[in-house]
Amino acid sequence: MSGDPDAARVQQRGLWFEEFEIGTVYEHSPGRTVTEADNVLFTTLTMNTQALHLDAAWAARQPGFGGQRLINSMFTLSTIVGLSVSQLTQGTLVANLGFSDIAFPAPLFAGDTLYAETECTGKRVSSSRPGEGIVNITHIGRNQDGVIVAKASRATLVKLRPEEN
């Protein structure tokens, strides 16, 4: 705590409903370099026994991905959403309403760095929940070369800006 009781204080938060701008792309920083340990831990925690994620010898014999294991796509999705939290929804999100149009157009491998951006694609004030609004966003994940490795549309329930007293 500051010794000065009159010092200005700023609490990190996401955006209020009113602050989301349709068509705006929010770039999230920093990126996240993905490791083999991340992939194995996430894959085993979620009980996903897919050999493409866990078995290096098996993956080495498979065509199409240069003999490499793939990073679990659910880890990729979770990470691009997570990269957006501090900028967009920390403390302002009420609920995650759902995902749609999820795609993984290119693979992600251990050692790649994942970057995320989010576009606001729509919003409306909730008709059934006073003080809240629905914000539609699209998360996009790119590797260090700018290649899109994940994309997902998402509907969220977000708080409206509190009225000043």
From TrEMBL:
Alphabetized SUPFAM superfamilies for the sequence: Thioesterase/thiol ester dehydrase-isomerase
CDD domains named among the record's database cross-references: FkbR2
UniProt-listed Pfam families: MaoC_dehydratas
Stretches assigned to the MaoC-like domain: 21-138
Family label: Belongs to the enoyl-CoA hydratase/isomerase family.
Protein name from the UniProt record: Acyl dehydratase
Originating organism: Gordonia humi
